[in-house]
Amino acid sequence: MARLAEVADLGRTAMLLAWDQEVCMPRGAAAEHGELRATVDRLTHERFVDDRVGELLEAASPRDEIEADVVRAARREYDKARRVPADLVAEITRAAANARAAWLEATEANAFAPFAPFLERNVELSRRLSACFPEAEHPYDPLLDDFEPGMRTADARAALERLRDGLVPLVAGVPPSDDSSLDLPADEPLPEAGQRALVRTALEALGVDDDHWRLDEAAHPFSSGITSGDIRITTRYHEHDLESLFSTLHEFGHGLYEHQIDPALARTPLGHGASAAWHESQSRLWENMVGRSPGFWRWCMPHAQAALPGYFAQLTWQEVQRSVNAVRRTLIRVSADEVTYGLHVIVRFELELALIEGELEVADLPAAWNDRMRSYLGVEVPDDRQGVLQDVHWSEGLFGYFPTYAIGNVIAGQLWARIGDELPDLDERFAAGDFSALREWLGEHVHRHGRRLMPDELLERVVGGPLDPGPYLAYLERKLQASAQLMA
Ligand code: ZN
How far is the CA of 218 from the centre of ligand 1 (A)? Predict the structure, then answer.
């Protein structure tokens, strides 16, 4: 337990360095900071994969249930880490650094071709990584397992095919995207001071206190649970949209998960959220199910009008709520609305799966991307920058991560259906500025467990069944019907 506590502390230290780099490091210090992080990462890895840890895990006789879960989780991670040779790990890191630089240049030049050889290298190294696990049913399984422990490619594929087949007709049925009646006043700026005030008010209502939380600014918003008592979230302020509020709600969801984990799991491998998709289920639940609900806007509207009178004074909460739920077929994932978002993710999942399977050549990737965007979303991709080059993930050698965004939404849909049964008056509570019942429900049923259960066991326990896109699709359909009625 002492050795694992040390490894956990080193991991948290790496997070703290990463937070510092994104939030307050002077720009000129990047190279030296890179060294700090590399050293901490190396020490973390070495302390964990050491022979001695294997002997200790072998000889362990847990004194209670938590220790038994710790040993089980640590053994799983240990076996996985020991199977990958250190020089392959180093090669992957180096190739990713080169590919990321090439991706930045290619994006600037708006041309995929110069990036292609670097991406080919990343794909090849991921396939070699996967080959360290010859017993895997599918070469994508070991990659997916890094983010969704225990999930098989076949399960992810089945769930996301069902999601895709539900979303494509939903999106096709939405009126054309240039419907400007849904737009908020486009030329009225949202002064940053007002946005900051609104974000503060929202966080206070959600239960955030200054003793355990920080809010800062970052170019790409993220959240770090350094410890359960030290939650740091970030947002960004744009003059012409409300992203600051929604990204704050999103990161609050991530932060709350880490904040409500059972303190007994601190300094163990169990002291984090269950998986990437489970984490995303929490952020998307607060961002979308809460932040775009009628109740939230009934509560928020007077605060929004006080903080940003020039923008909100002439609007009703119904107009704002309808606008923040508008569906628009667009090209860019990160600014996509709730309904089309899943299709953006599914395009990436299907393509990276084909790359890893060897069914798709990197050279054919842009055309395959454009085809899918046309058939799923009905949009024409004008150039690679607004197409295949838009996300950083593949340049960093991250394969297996994209599907967790969509699976997170699916889980959020299942949770939301369950929560609706148990707390039927939630929308009224939101309207009164009371978010405590939801916060406590999530703490009790999801958060406190940390990683004690495997992701699929947690889902079974909370919603009584396996991954199922049905409730999420039904939730989106209900919302679309409600806004169609408002329009009529
Ligand atoms: Zn997120």
Answer: 14
Query: Does one domain contain both 24 and 126?
Result: yes
Predicted confidence band at 174 (pLDDT cuts at 50, 70, 90)? confident
| 150 in a structural domain | no
Same domain assignment for residues 163 and 106? no
* C-alpha of residue 254 to centroid of ligand 1, in Å: 7
Instruction: With a cut of 60, say whether residue 352 has pLDDT above it.
Output: yes
Q: Rounded to the nearest whole angstrom, what is the distance from the C-alpha of residue 238 to the centroid of ligand 1?
A: 19
* Distance between Cα 252 and ligand 1 center (Å): 10
Q: In which band, very low, low, confident or very high, does the pLDDT at 181 lie, cut at 50, 70 and 90?
A: very low
Strand order, beta sheet including 213-217 = 213-217, 230-235, 223-227
CATH number, domain containing residue 442: 1.10.1370.30
Catalytic residue among 251, 258, 287, 396: 251
Does residue 123 share a domain with residue 10?
A: yes
Check: CB of residue 262 under 8 Å from CB of residue 69: no
Residue found by looking up tokens 């019907």 in the block: 481
**Residue 144 alpha carbon to ligand 1 centre in Å:** 17
Catalytic residue flag (residue 359) = no
Q: Which residues of 409-448 are buried (b: 16+ CB within 10 A; e: fewer)?
A: bbbbbbbbbbbeeeeeebeebbbebbbeebbebbbebbbe
pTM, whole model, 2 decimals?
0.96
Of 91, 109, 138, the domain-final residue: 138
75, 106, 138 - which closes a domain: 138
What pLDDT does residue 488 have?
61
